[in-house]
Specification:
heterodimer, A: 341 residues, alpha/beta, Rossmann fold, eight-stranded mixed sheet, globular, B: 324 residues, four-stranded antiparallel sheet, 11 helices, 12 strands, binds adenosine-5'-triphosphate, binds iron/sulfur cluster, binds magnesium ion
Chain lengths: 341, 324
């Protein structure tokens, strides 16, 4: 039994992933493949990932583009089924939970791509009202219209914007429409995949402040994905760092930011641009990103890791516990386990 | 003469309830090899400015007045056919929305090959090998294996990088990059920025870089324009605008950046919202949210005025106004 990445949380978790993997078939069409004599190609987007999110808390996922964050997001709300492992929502298997409208209402997602997720033929007010109607949260046109207006105002749009269509809005305005829609079903668990990537920093601050307020007031639970590490630091209770489909380091956000242990986490934190950089190039994370179709053996990070040795090239590191016990961190790295990191 | 000159550009949307003015007298220029960063409030008109330059303003939106010149020649009055020629070859565009640029039915390799062959004389084999090269250049792992893949098989950030490759592969003189790195993690971001900088240095290409990421701006741009409610609020050298902004809106914007160093209970924000296009207040459009507002701000609209190293559209910098 491999060591699991999910640290036990004192409270029963809201969402739990247990040894979850997701594989995609990325072969060329059958005829071309057969003519060229190729084998089937599969891509392991998520590989044996475990985590638990306590009610009212935020787990953030960070990692390079293509490492599997959005795939986990979709698994977490049941849009993809795991190829292996299980996801539980309040202790029930997600596939069972999704079959019940009362439970389905309680989870929602803000998609990474705000354009693709808004129906271009619907007026904004109908887009935002859709979950309210689908789950019969409110009755009566007036009550629904008031609620939609309030939701739009919360995300810095105006109630009158409800009359317009998505294409009449800027990128950041559309992202706010999708946030308003996600909030309209009054979810308890919200998956936020790059929720503020298209927003300028002042609107972003408004949205993040709103999300935190809702969490404090209503106890919302978030799975939060962002490339912006300053945003992640601001939002997270716990933080998972992903590399090529695996969680390579996970622990309390403050601890991981203050004392990154995995060599990849350290590189990631070093690559952050900042305002002191005017006119200067930063050191990019070195080495080529490996292909998830053909991941390197052993530790997938070894071709880029300054601490790699022979063991790293053959043996896959399992999670070991590190850090002071109050701030427990899980790290998948031989060097950390051997005390030479 | 600058490579690109935008001169008092005004863009309007006629609607049943009257005409909305989305851009109102926007002027700036970009020199050869220069990177102009464009930042500002969501909905301020950054994407519309880019769309106007490349002639892809979506109807009913239209240029109501002003001029856009490339190499001194007006391009805002060109026929669609002539403009199509300029797009790709002279001006490459990276759109904010990767899905509108990518054709879901064609493999990413085919899209690159077709774009290059439309503008450059290349054999099939040459174009294909360049396509793989561009995918590598933008950091797609194992490009030989993935050149046949379709857009939906790529992650959000990978699609974004294909869009960047498509915009650059015909080697344009001017690149309009609308949020090119928002879907990208910091390490890929660094790679893309290095690529953009190399293009400006080695090929003298110019870039208009729209982004919300002030770190990217600080690292890449030579000058920065800050937009608010369809106008330029401030423009100047990057170091001044980012570190010592003059306009009250720019100051609020820079103050909202979450700091990595320490965690705050609450992020600083500029209270209130940008006015709707049909309710832009008279005088300075920022006046309802401005802490320094005074009488003149509510009646007279400020133009760009010299403000230290930058120029700011703010009455605080008018001759005789109390020192800002
Ligand atoms: N439907 C699919 N078919 C085939 N491959 C897929 C599919 N969805 C995702 N992938 C692949 O799985 C990997 C992980 O993708 P995912 O979208 O989860 O990445 P991500 O971490 O969200 O990246 P980004 O930060 O760029 O959004 C990528 O290599 C991607 O190409
Ligand atoms: N088809 C349209 N009809 C009416 N108004 C429109 C239309 N397209 C854009 N607008 C308006 O024009 C304004 C400027 O939009 P633009 O897309 O240029 O903003 P932006 O600065 O790029 O914002 P973001 O940072 O959110 O992408 C917005 O207020 C938007 O609502
Ligand atoms: S296991 Fe080895 S290669 Fe992997 S991160 Fe640790 S030291 Fe580096
Ligand atoms: S002109 Fe007046 S209202 Fe406008 S930014 Fe300057 S001080 Fe504020
Ligand atoms: Mg993603
Ligand atoms: Mg835009």
């Amino acid at each position: 039994m491999p060591d699991r990445a999910g640290t036990p949380v004192p409270e029963a978790p809201m969402l739990e992933a247990i040894g979850v993997s997701r594989v995609f078939d990325v072969s060329r069409p059958w005829l071309q493949r057969t003519l060229a004599g190729e084998k089937r190609l599969t891509l392991r987007a998520v590989d044996d990932v475990s985590f638990a999110i306590a009610p009212g808390s935020t787990l953030s996922l960070v990692g390079e583009s293509g490492c599997g964050k959005s795939t986990i997001a979709r698994l977490a709300v049941g849009l993809y089924a795991p190829s292996a492992g299980e996801i539980r929502f309040e202790g029930n298997s997600l596939s069972v939970a999704r079959a019940q409208p009362a439970l389905r209402r309680r989870m929602n997602m803000i998609f990474q791509d705000p354009y693709a997720s808004l129906n271009p033929r619907w007026r904004v007010r109908d887009i935002v009202a859709e979950p309210i109607r689908a789950f019969k949260i409110l009755d009566g046109a007036k009550a629904i219209a008031d609620r939609v207006g309030a939701l739009l105002a919360q995300v810095g749009l105006s109630p009158a914007d409800g009359e317009r269509y998505p294409h009449e809005f800027s990128g950041g305005q559309r992202q706010r429409i999708s946030i308003a829609r996600a909030l309209s079903s009054e979810p308890d668990f919200l998956v936020c995949d790059e929720p503020t990537s298209a927003l300028d920093v002042s609107v972003q601050a408004q949205i993040l402040n709103l999300m935190k307020e809702l969490q404090e007031r209503l106890g919302l639970t978030y799975l939060f994905i962002s490339h912006n590490l300053a945003v992640v630091r601001h939002m997270s209770d716990r933080l998972g760092v992903m590399y090529l489909g695996r969680i390579v380091e996970m622990g309390p956000g403050e601890e991981v930011f203050a004392r990154p242990r995995h060599p990849y986490t350290r590189m990631l934190l070093d690559a952050i641009p900042d305002l002191e950089m005017v006119g200067r190039a930063r050191t990019p994370v070195g080495g080529e990103v490996p292909s998830p179709i053909d991941p390197p053996p052993g530790c997938a990070f070894h071709p880029r890791c300054p601490l790699a040795n022979a063991r790293c090239r053959t043996e896959r590191p399992e999670h070991t516990r590190a850090g002071p016990s109050a701030a427990e961190v899980l790290v998948a790295c031989h060097a950390v386990a051997e005390g030479r990191a | 003469m600058a490579l690109l000159e935008v001169d008092r550009l005004t863009v309007e949307f006629p609607t049943r309830r009257g005409t909305l003015r989305a851009l109102d007298g926007v002027s700036f220029s970009i020199g050869a090899g220069e990177v102009l960063g464009v930042v500002g409030e969501s909905g301020a008109g950054k994407s519309l400015t880019g769309a106007s330059i490349i002639g892809l303003l979506e109807p009913p939106g239209r240029i109501a007045s002003g001029e856009i010149r490339l190499n001194g020649e007006r391009i805002d009055t060109l026929k669609p056919e002539a403009m199509r020629h300029i797009r790709g070859k002279q001006i490459g565009a990276i759109f904010q929305d990767p899905l509108t640029t990518l054709n879901p039915l064609y493999s990413v390799g085919r899209q690159l090959v077709e774009t290059m062959q439309a503008h450059l004389k290349l054999s099939d084999a040459e174009a294909r090998s360049r396509a793989v090269g561009w995918l590598r250049e933008v950091g797609i792992p194992a490009p030989e294996q993935r050149v046949e893949a379709y857009p939906h098989q790529f992650s959000g950030g990978m699609r974004q990088r294909v869009v960047i490759a498509l915009a650059l592969c015909a080697e344009p003189r001017l690149v309009i990059a609308d949020e090119p790195t928002t879907a990208l993690d910091v390490s890929v971001q660094a790679q893309i920025i290095a690529l953009l900088r190399r293009l400006t240095r080695e090929h003298g290409a110019s870039v208009m870089l729209v982004t919300h990421d002030m770190g990217v701006i600080a690292e890449t741009a030579d000058r920065v324009a800050v937009m608010y409610a369809g106008r330029i609020a401030e423009i100047g050298p990057v170091a001044s605008v980012v570190k010592a902004p003059a306009h009250p809106y720019s100051k609020g914007l820079m103050g909202s950046i979450p700091a990595l160093g320490h965690r705050m209970a609450r992020l600083a924000q500029i209270d209130g919202a940008m006015p709707r296009l049909n309710a832009i207040p008279p005088g300075c459009a920022f006046n309802p949210r401005c802490k320094r507002v005074f009488d003149r701000c509510r009646v007279e609209r400020p133009d760009l005025l010299p403000a230290g190293d930058t120029r700011a559209a703010c009455w605080l910098y008018a001759e005789g106004a109390a020192d800002a």
